[in-house]
């Protein structure tokens, strides 16, 4: 069992101000795999003070020096890729092959994208012949990240903030903290100055709330549930700090008959990926009426063919969900969904042969209408709801009838129809026909899915203030 009680503050590994052990549970086995410490106010204050002291110098470090450090970080990250893959697989249950390819790969992908964007980013822009617009780092930033895509979210926040001249305090999820601890080691090995990057573990009620309310924190960047995002916004309001939120989703996947079986197969697989623990998962499948029965059969087959197993095993299966609390929540929503719609695959309990670990059956609930709880609440598990529509306008109305607006999906070979729908669905991202987004594409949502954008140029701009200066020339 690992013992990882220390925090990374002001360039050093330090003991917590007060002992407060917390067990990290391997979701594949339900066994304790590590012990960390949760910080308190003294630890938070120390991390913020270190970041505040480092900011005046770091803000004006030359771009070439920052680029060299970020390139070194990428080198270190790749050198330790297997170590990172093992850590994420153990702490949050991603099967090891997926952890290597997707969980680790997401971090390096975004880091490479930020390097490209940062190299040509204009921090000084001519507004008129005599007036300049300057883009300057906002200051001390607190980065609160989730457990479902650990490196994806840590890199999307820490790298752009540091690149543009902010200093940072990272609080990774206490449920899956091992990857965040490793990332702190990478930052240290890369040689970033003391105080530029700090990391301490803690829960939302403790360190999370302390960072949100701290008068010396200039910005909070948070990824997690919409419920927590609202609490953070309220806590941050007293100091009027900037709050950037990437929150939940209930993505609609609009499948027209002309998309055929391929559209349904892709949509179901995409829903079950990462055991359904993705805020942008297409969990509402909207199918054209004339294709509905066939689509239900295809999705049901996909669920039944999706294997579930331990994260340590190689293969294309899905692993457990992250925790007992998450497992219980999903079971409760599946039970509600069974009562509301028609269960065609999966259901309650663990898959056969898996009696220990937080494993959930890939589940399909058909004959769902959008007023049902299963259609409105984010499950965050491998659970697919299938609805039907008759007209394009009805499909758009159903897709938009949700408090969320992160990612919607459209499946049709008809370019005109696809573009028509893409313009009218209310979400920050629209993926069509399985075409993934480019490196540096803005990630973020509308409505209760949040208010910020991450990735590439948009991610850099998120951590900048705009200053107008007259009489420059």
Automatic annotation (TrEMBL):
Keywords from the UniProt entry: Oxidoreductase
Gene3D superfamilies: Aldehyde Dehydrogenase, Chain A, domain 1, Aldehyde Dehydrogenase, Chain A, domain 2
EC category: oxidoreductase
InterPro entries cross-referenced by the UniProt entry: Ald_DH/histidinol_DH (IPR016161), Ald_DH_C (IPR016163), Ald_DH_CS_CYS (IPR016160), Ald_DH_N (IPR016162), Aldehyde_DH_dom (IPR015590)
Pfam family, one: Aldedh
Domain called Aldehyde dehydrogenase: residue spans: 13-469
Coiled coil: none
Top-rank lineage group of the source organism: Bacteria
EC number assigned by the record: 1.2.1.3
Catalysed transformations (reactions): an aldehyde + NAD(+) + H2O = a carboxylate + NADH + 2 H(+)
Family label: Belongs to the aldehyde dehydrogenase family.
Protein name in UniProt: aldehyde dehydrogenase (NAD(+))
Source taxonomy: Bacteria, Pseudomonadati, Pseudomonadota, Alphaproteobacteria, Rhodobacterales
């Amino acid at each position: 069992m690992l013992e990882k009680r220390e925090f990374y503050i002001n360039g050093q590994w330090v003991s917590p101000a007060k002992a407060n052990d917390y067990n990290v549970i391997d979701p594949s086995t339900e066994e304790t795999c590590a012990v960390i410490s949760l910080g308190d106010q003294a630890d938070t204050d120390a991390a913020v003070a270190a970041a505040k002291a480092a900011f005046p110098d770091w803000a004006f470090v030359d771009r070439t020096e920052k680029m060299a450090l970020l390139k070194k970080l990428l080198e270190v990250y790749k050198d330790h890729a297997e170590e990172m893959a093992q850590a994420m697989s153990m702490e949050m249950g991603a099967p090891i092959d997926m952890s290597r390819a997707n969980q680790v790969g997401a971090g390096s992908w975004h880091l490479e994208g930020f390097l490209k964007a940062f190299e040509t980013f204009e921090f000084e822009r001519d507004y008129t012949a005599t007036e300049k617009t300057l883009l300057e780092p906002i200051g001390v930033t607190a980065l609160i990240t989730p457990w479902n895509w650990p490196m994806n979210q840590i890199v999307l926040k820490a790298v752009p903030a540091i690149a543009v001249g902010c200093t940072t305090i990272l609080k990774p999820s206490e449920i899956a903290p091992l990857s965040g601890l490793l990332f702190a080691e990478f930052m240290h090995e890369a040689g970033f100055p003391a105080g530029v990057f700090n990391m301490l573990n803690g829960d939302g009620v403790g360190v999370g709330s302390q960072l949100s309310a701290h008068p010396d924190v200039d910005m909070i960047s948070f990824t997690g549930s919409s419920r927590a995002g609202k609490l953070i916004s309220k806590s941050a309001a007293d100091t009027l700090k900037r709050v950037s939120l990437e929150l939940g989703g209930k993505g609609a996947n609009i499948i027209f008959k002309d998309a055929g079986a391929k559209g349904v197969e892709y949509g179901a697989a995409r829903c079950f990926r990462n055991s359904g623990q993705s805020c942008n998962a297409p969990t509402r499948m909207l199918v054209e009426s004339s294709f509905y029965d066939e689509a239900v059969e295809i999705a049901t087959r996909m669920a039944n063919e999706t294997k579930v197993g331990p994260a340590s095993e190689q293969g294309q299966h899905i692993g457990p969900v992250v925790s007992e609390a998450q497992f219980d929540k999903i079971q409760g929503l599946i039970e509600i969904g069974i009562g509301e719609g028609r269960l065609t695959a999966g259901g309650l309990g663990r898959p056969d042969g898996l009696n220990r670990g937080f494993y959930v059956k890939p589940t399909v609930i058909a004959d769902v209408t959008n007023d049902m709880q299963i259609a409105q609440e984010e499950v965050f598990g491998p659970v697919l709801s299938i609805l039907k529509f008759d007209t394009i306008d009805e499909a758009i109305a159903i897709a938009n009838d949700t408090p969320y607006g992160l990612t919607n999906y459209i499946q049709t070979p008809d370019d005109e129809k696809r573009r028509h729908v893409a313009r009218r669905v209310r979400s920050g991202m629209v993926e069509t026909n399985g075409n993934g987004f480019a490196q540096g594409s803005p990630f973020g949502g509308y409505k209760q899915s949040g208010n910020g954008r991450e990735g590439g140029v948009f991610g850099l701009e998120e951590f900048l203030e705009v200053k107008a200066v007259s009489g420059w020339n």
